[in-house]
Amino acid sequence: MKLADTKFKKALLIISSAIILVFTLAVLFISPVAKYLIEKYSVEYTGRQIKMDWAYVNPFTGYVHFNNFRIYEEKNDSIFISSKGLSIGFNLRKVLSKEYEITSITLDKPMGIAIQKTRSIFNFSDIIDHFSSPSSNSTKPKQPLHLNILNIKIKDGTFYLYDTLVHVNYFIKDFDFESTGERWNVDTFPGTFSFSPGIGPGHVAGNFTINTSNSDYRFAFVIQKLNLGIIEQYLKDMTNYGTFSAYLDANIKAIGNFKDGENIDTKGRISINNFHFGKTRKEDYFAFDTLVLAIDEINPKMHFYRLDSLTLAHPYFKYEKYDHLDNIETMFGENGNKVSTESTTHTKFNLIVSLAHFFATVAKDFFESIYKINRLAVKRADIKFNDYSTSEKFSIDANTLYLKADSIDKSHGNVNISLSSAVEPYGNFFITANINPRDSATFNLNYRFSNIPVTQFNPYLISYTSFPLDRGTLEANGKWNVQNGSIQSTNHLLIIDPRVTKRVKNKANKWIPLWLVMAFIRERSNVIDYQIPITGNLKNPKFHLHDIVVNTLNNIFVKPPTTPYRIEVKKLETAIEKSLALKWEMHQASMTSIQKRFVEKMAQFMANNPTTSIVISPQQYTIKEKEYILFFEAKKKYYLSRHPEKAESFDKDDSEYVDKMSIKDSSFVRYLNQHLTHSLVFTIQDKCSNLIDTSIVNRQLYLLNKSRENTFISYFKEQGVADRISFLVPNSTIPYNGFSFFKIEYKGELPTYLIKAYQKIDELNIESPREKYEKERAKIKSI
Hints:
Layout (H helix, E strand, L loop, with lengths): L1 H45 L3 E2 L2 E5 L4 E10 L6 E12 L9 E9 L2 E6 L8 H7 L15 E17 L4 E15 L5 E10 L5 E9 L4 E12 L2 H6 L7 E15 L2 E19 L5 E16 L4 E10 L2 E6 L5 H6 L4 H8 L6 H18 L1 E18 L6 E16 L5 E10 L3 E9 L2 E15 L4 H8 L3 E15 L2 E15 L13 H8 L5 E5 L2 E3 L4 E3 L2 H12 L5 H18 E4 L8 H16 L4 E8 L1 H21 L9 H9 L5 H9 L9 H8 L2 H25 L6 E3 L3 E2 L7 E8 L4 H14 L8 H8 L2
Parallel strand pairs: 5-7, 6-7, 15-17, 16-17, 28-29, 28-30
Antiparallel strand pairs: 1-3, 2-3, 3-4, 4-5, 4-6, 7-8, 8-9, 9-10, 10-11, 11-12, 12-13, 13-14, 14-15, 14-16, 17-18, 18-19, 19-20, 20-21, 21-22, 22-23, 23-24, 25-26, 27-31, 28-31
C-alpha cells in the first residue's frame, strides 16, 4: 500500500512538473515569437514600425507585457509614441461566448509627439486613414461587437505638440489618466485625469463622463496657476515683436453635448493672474494683477448669462503715439494688418485668432441674451497716454482709477455706473452714469474734471503756437441726458488765470501769437469761462457756440476800458510770485530783466533788515529738464559731425543754432537712425538716449542747477548778504506751473511791498469781477 502511494505521488509530481514545464516552455516560446511577429508585420497591418526590447505573453492567464514599447513615425526612424511598459490583460473565458474583454490596459511613462503639418494634417493622420472602416453598400444591419475595454490607466505621461506652421512647441508632463473603461452594452465612459505644463508651474486635474450613444458629457476640472506662455508662441505670427505671460486658475463644472456646441451649461470661477503683454519683459503695454469671473450660470442655448461678479484688479494700459504709427500699430502692423492677415488665412491654426473669434461670438450673444452681473468692478487702474509726435513729450496718466457697477440686469431697471480717478501729475475726475441695459442710446451722465493744470498741455501749445503757459487751472463739468439717441447736454469749461510766457523758438514749432488769442478769449477776471450746450443726436450732435461768440465780442468791445484794472492785478500777482518763487526757463540759467529787478529788490531788503534770511528750495522739473538737455546734446553731436572744425571752438552762436534746430529735422533723424543698436526704438527721445550716455545728461543737469544757484546768489553777494541765503537739497518734481523754480521762504520780517501786495490781491479777489471765482482760486492756492 505504501509502495502504491509512493508511486502515485511520484507520478503526480512528474505530471505536474511536466505540465509546469510545458506551460513555462509555452510562455518562453510564445513571448519571443510574439515579439518577432509584431515587429515583422507591424508595418503591413498598422502602417507603422513597432518595436520593443522584450515581450512577455502568458496565453493561460491572458496577460501581455511589452517592455520599452515604441511606435515610429511613418517611414521614419523617429519615435511617434513610446512607453516604458505596456501591459494588457484579456479575459480568455469570455471569448468562448463571443464576448471580447480587455480587463486592463496600463501605459507606464508614455511619451508621444503630435506634429501639425498643415491645417488638417497631423503626423498621426495616416493611422486614422489606415484604420478607417471602408464604406459598405450593404444594408444588412450588423450585430454590435461585444467588446469591453476596462481599467484604462496612463501613468506619468509626457506629450509634445509641434506646430510647424506657426512654430509652436509645447508639452505637458506628469500626465495621469484612469478610467473604469467602457462596456459594449453600457453607454457611459467615465474618467479622471491630471497633468502639469512642461514649462513653468501649474497643475490641471479633473473628471468627466461621456455618453457614447448621444454624445452628452459632464465634466469638472480644477486648474491651479497654469502657465499660459504658449500664447506667446502664437503671437509671433501676428506681431512684429512682443512678449506675453499669464497664469490661469479655474474651478469649472459643465454639462453639454458634443454635437451641439451651444448646448452647454457652465458654473464655476475663472481667474487670470499676473497678466503681462508688452514690448519687452520689463515694459508692458497692457497688464493686470487679477481678472476674476465668478459664474452662476452660462447657457448659450437658453440665452442665459448670469454672473455673480466680474472684477479686474490693478489693470495697466499704455498708449503711445509716435511720429509714425503708435505702439499698437508698430506691434500689430499699420491698421492691424498683421492681425487681419492672420485672421483671414485658412492654411494654419492660430490659438489667439480662434480665441478672439470665440470671445467675439460670446460677446455678441451676451448682449442679445438675458444677462446679469451682480457686481462689476475695476480697481486701481492705471491708464497712461504718451505723445511723442510733438516737439517734446506729452504725458498724462489716469492713476488709481476705479469703476463700479451693481446689478447689471437686462431684465430689470437702469444700471448705475461710477468712474473716478486721480490724474497725474495733478487733478482728478469723476463720472457717474445711469444706463438702460436694454437700450445703450438711453442714459444720463454727469462728469467733473478739476484741478488740472493747463501747463500740462504745454507740449501741444509749444508745437502749435510756440508759446507755453506758466499758469492756469482747467475745470470742466457737464450733464448729459440722452433719450433714444436724442441729446440734451450742458457743458461748462473754466480755465482759471491762464498766462502766456516767453516764446520757445524752434524750427519744429508753428507760430501763433497766443498772447493775442488770450486777449479775445480771456475775460477781464482773467478766466476763460464758456457754456457749450450740445443737442441733436448721438450720430449728429450740434454744438451751440453762442456763449463763446458773446464772450469774444465782449472781450473785444467791453474789456479794453478795464485795462488799468487788469494791469494793477498783473503787477500785484507778479510782485507776489517773483517774491516767493523764481521761475527758470527750460535749459536756461539766465534771468529776465523783471526777475533781476525783483532779486535786486530782495537783496536790498535783506541789507536793510539784518535779522531776515532766505531759504531756497529748488523745485526741479527733472524729467523735462533732462529731455531738453538730451535733445541739445544729441543735436550738438550731430552738428559737430557735420562741422568737425567746431569741436574746439563751439561758441554761443553755435549753441543758439543747435538749440533752435528741430528734433524732427530729417537729416538729424537719419543720423540718429544710423546709430541705432537695435530696431525696437520708436521715439526721438529713445533714439537720442541711444546716442548720448545718461551720465552726460546727469552731469549737464548738475551744472545747469549750479549755474542757476550762482546766478541767483550773485545779486546777494553784491549787497554782502549771501551768507544769509540757504539752499536746501533740490526736490525732483513735476511743478504745477510747468517749469523748474526756486521756492523762496523768508525767515524773519516779510518785505513791506509783499505784504501790501498780498493784502491788495485778497481785496480784489472778493470784489467784482474776480469774486465769482474766489473759491476756485482758493482751492488752487492750496495745491
